[in-house]
Amino acid sequence: MKKIIKGFAAVAVCITIFSQMSCKPAQSTSKSISKTDSVSMSDAELYNKAYSYLIINEQSATNALTNSTSTEVKAYSKDLKADYGTLREEFRKFAKQKNITLNEDLTTEMISMNTDLTKLSGSDYDKQYAKTVDATQTDLSNALTTLSSKVSDPEIKKWATEISPLINSYSSKTKDFSDKLSQMK
């Protein structure tokens, strides 16, 4: 009897939590992983969208450490992974302060992109990795810009505005890296 009561209580808690959350599962698109109508998204959804780009960049960097044959790509990926690990903790801390439940799952499009990348090897891998990380870094930067301009919560807006210069510096660094690798033969 106690188990049944606990079960009903757990279900009630879950229903309460999910009814109060406005987050929807991430949806992928067939052409662009950043293609989403941000106007209708809640603050938590916008925050999670930015967070998902952070996750894919961190995972791509981890994969590059294993799959790349270039010492330059591995060194860059090691730095990127460390930077994004720190940034991910900042996202988590702030989400906890704002009572935002973070979605650790990637969209189907992101998973597919990562899988396709790991099928490559050698300089083909390195060049595609550079293009991929450049694109997803741009998506992250754009998601932060959207977050800082579209959210209704002033604390989230302030946080996103304050962290944007850091993200933009990563974007610049990534763009330079991508340009350099694309010129390799």
From TrEMBL:
Domain DUF4142: 42-169
Pfam family, one: DUF4142
Protein name: DUF4142 domain-containing protein
Native species: Solitalea agri
